[in-house]
């Protein structure tokens, strides 16, 4: 529990406007605050994550459950929220990073740079040198110029030796623009590490468009958790007049034998999802020894696997299923199977592929003793 990250998200975002405080508005498919939390959750140097929320947002049930974090009610001013977060750090905390939820574009490189600088100084923060000319102005007129030498634009995460910043915050008498100001008032030396333009603080309505662009560009493969799973299943033929494949009843002179409805395609896709999640297989979640699953519709299994994926924070990228049989012919039913599978999975049909092959009359499928199915599924968490 050596290094904590405190994400302050208890402001009301009045300057940004919108139907919800800025940290709850959607950006690239997730609330701003979730992008920020994930950036710290996936950094290997962070041991504990503390999220400071407005009490109204906690009461409204907005606190996220994934990534796992300690939820703390914030205060009226930013520094009240920071102090609440500091007080909630686990015993033994050595270093702490304090970051605005409103900066979702923070990179792993900035987090690493601040952490590394803390090995040398009790405080460190990212900043960018001012590059524009600076004026003073009044009533729409320039009234003077300001030398920009030695001026920086401060960003977060601002990092500190934990005990030192806790004591500094507890002792600080008045307002403070940021935690560096509090640290300096307590006499701490603060190192400057390079900030980045992409680490912008969403403050005004236009900033959402910029932040969306930045997050879109940042979504590189190294930041996305992609899981691949495979599934394989076989059911033998028995007496009957139809087979159920990928949720569709297909007329046939035989049926498939099984404990459930023997939907071999749906079972393979279900196992591919469980496999991608490293959560075993259908048998583990729905034991064949349990009589309640006798003759069960396989969509129960598929829906369970899809919901489990969502609960674990994944979206289903795609599924691809190959049915192996000489007969019945799958082609005429493939579109209906695709639509039904997509409906159960809760995804767009363009993400579902159902295809078939014969085995050239070789083996048990070639001899029409049964049907086999193979499936692949991808899951994505960003
Ligand atoms: N009482 C407060 C005020 C601010 N913050 C957080 O501090 C960060 C930086 O503050 P700012 O950008 O000023 O956010 P708001 O106070 O929400 O914005 P505004 O001033 O426009 O209302 C934000 O992530 C904000 O949620 C906080 O945790 N508690
Ligand atoms: C902490 C900060 O993000 C550093 O730039 C900034 O001071 C927050 O400013 P605000 O006045 O709360 O918008």
Automatic annotation (TrEMBL):
Residues bound to 4-CDP-2-C-methyl-D-erythritol 2-phosphate are 233-235, 259-260, 281-283, 357-360, 364, 367
Q: In which pathway does it act?
A: Isoprenoid biosynthesis; isopentenyl diphosphate biosynthesis via DXP pathway; isopentenyl diphosphate from 1-deoxy-D-xylulose 5-phosphate: step 2/6; Isoprenoid biosynthesis; isopentenyl diphosphate biosynthesis via DXP pathway; isopentenyl diphosphate from 1-deoxy-D-xylulose 5-phosphate: step 4/6
User: Which residue intervals make up region (2-C-methyl-D-erythritol 4-phosphate cytidylyltransferase)?
Assistant: 1-226
Query: Which reaction(s) are listed as its catalytic activity?
Result: 4-CDP-2-C-methyl-D-erythritol 2-phosphate = 2-C-methyl-D-erythritol 2,4-cyclic diphosphate + CMP; 2-C-methyl-D-erythritol 4-phosphate + CTP + H(+) = 4-CDP-2-C-methyl-D-erythritol + diphosphate
Q: Does the keyword Transport apply?
A: no
Q: Which UniProt keywords apply?
A: Isoprene biosynthesis, Lyase, Metal-binding, Multifunctional enzyme, Nucleotidyltransferase, Transferase
Gene3D superfamilies per record: 2-C-methyl-D-erythritol 2,4-cyclodiphosphate synthase (3.30.1330.50), Spore Coat Polysaccharide Biosynthesis Protein SpsA, Chain A (3.90.550.10)
User: In which residues is a divalent metal cation bound?
Assistant: 233, 235, 267
Q: Which residues form the 2-C-methyl-D-erythritol 2,4-cyclodiphosphate synthase domain?
A: 226-379
Q: Matching InterPro entries, A to Z?
A: IspD, IspD/F, IspD/TarI, ISPD_synthase_CS, MECDP_synthase, MECDP_synthase_CS, MECDP_synthase_sf, Nucleotide-diphossugar_trans
- Essential cofactor(s): a divalent metal cation
The UniProt record lists the EC number as 2.7.7.60, 4.6.1.12
Tell me the segments the record calls region 2-C-methyl-D-erythritol 2,4-cyclodiphosphate synthase.
227-382
* Superkingdom, taxonomy of origin: Bacteria
The site feature described as Transition state stabilizer is recorded at 15, 22, 259, 358
Provide the GO MF annotations for this entry: 2-C-methyl-D-erythritol 2,4-cyclodiphosphate synthase activity; 2-C-methyl-D-erythritol 4-phosphate cytidylyltransferase activity; metal ion binding
Spell out the residues of the site Positions MEP for the nucleophilic attack.
148, 201
Q: What is any one GO biological process for this UniProt entry? A: isopentenyl diphosphate biosynthetic process, methylerythritol 4-phosphate pathway
Q: Which Pfam families match?
A: IspD, YgbB
Q: Which HAMAP family did the record assign?
A: IspD, IspDF, IspF
* Function description: Bifunctional enzyme that catalyzes the formation of 4-diphosphocytidyl-2-C-methyl-D-erythritol from CTP and 2-C-methyl-D-erythritol 4-phosphate (MEP) (IspD), and catalyzes the conversion of 4-diphosphocytidyl-2-C-methyl-D-erythritol 2-phosphate (CDP-ME2P) to 2-C-methyl-D-erythritol 2,4-cyclodiphosphate (ME-CPP) with a corresponding release of cytidine 5-monophosphate (CMP) (IspF).
Give the record's family classification. Answer: In the C-terminal section; belongs to the IspF family. Belongs to the IspF family.
Q: Which PANTHER family match?
A: 2-C-METHYL-D-ERYTHRITOL 2,4-CYCLODIPHOSPHATE SYNTHASE, CHLOROPLASTIC
Protein name in the entry: Bifunctional enzyme IspD/IspF
- Species source reads Rhodalgimonas zhirmunskyi
Q: Which gene encodes it?
A: ispDF
């Amino acid at each position: 529990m050596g290094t904590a990250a405190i994400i302050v998200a208890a402001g009301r975002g009045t300057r940004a406007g919108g139907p919800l405080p800025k940290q709850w508005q959607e950006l690239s498919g997730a609330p701003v605050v979730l992008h920020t939390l994930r950036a710290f959750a996936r950094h290997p140097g962070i041991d504990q994550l503390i999220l400071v929320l407005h009490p109204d947002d906690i009461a409204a049930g907005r606190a996220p459950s994934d990534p796992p974090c300690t939820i703390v009610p914030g205060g009226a001013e930013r520094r009240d929220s920071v102090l609440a977060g500091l007080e909630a750090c686990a015993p033994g905390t050595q270093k702490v990073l304090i970051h605005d939820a409103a900066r979702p574009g923070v990179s792993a490189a900035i987090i690493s740079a601040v952490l590394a600088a803390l090995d040398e100084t009790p405080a460190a923060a990212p900043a960018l040198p001012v590059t524009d000319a600076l004026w003073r102005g009044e009533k729409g007129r320039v009234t003077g110029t300001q030398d920009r030498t030695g001026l920086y634009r401060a960003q977060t995460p601002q990092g500190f030796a934990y005990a030192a910043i806790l004591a500094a915050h507890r002792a600080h008498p008045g307002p403070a623009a940021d935690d560096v100001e509090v640290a300096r008032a307590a006499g701490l030396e603060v190192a400057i590490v390079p900030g980045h333009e992409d680490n912008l603080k969403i403050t005004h309505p236009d900033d959402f468009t910029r932040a969306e662009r930045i997050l879109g560009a940042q979504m590189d493969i190294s930041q996305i958790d992609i899981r691949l799973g495979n599934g394989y299943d076989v059911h033998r033929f028995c007496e009957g007049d139809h087979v159920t494949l990928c949720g569709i009843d297909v007329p046939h002179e035989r049926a498939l034998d099984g404990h459930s409805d023997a939907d071999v395609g749906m079972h393979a896709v279900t196992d591919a999802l469980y496999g991608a999640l490293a959560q075993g297989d259908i048998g583990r979640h729905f034991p064949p020894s349990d009589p309640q699953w006798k003759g069960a519709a396989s969509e129960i299994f598929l829906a369970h696997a899809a919901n489990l994926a969502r609960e674990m924070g994944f979206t289903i990228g795609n599924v691809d299923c190959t049915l192996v049989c000489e007969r019945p012919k799958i082609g005429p039913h493939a579109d209906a199977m695709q639509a039904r599978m997509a409906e159960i999975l809760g995804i767009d049909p363009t993400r579902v592929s159902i295809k078939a092959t014969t085995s050239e009359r070789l083996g048990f499928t070639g001899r029409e003793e049964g049907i086999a199915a193979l499936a692949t599924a991808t899951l994505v968490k960003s």
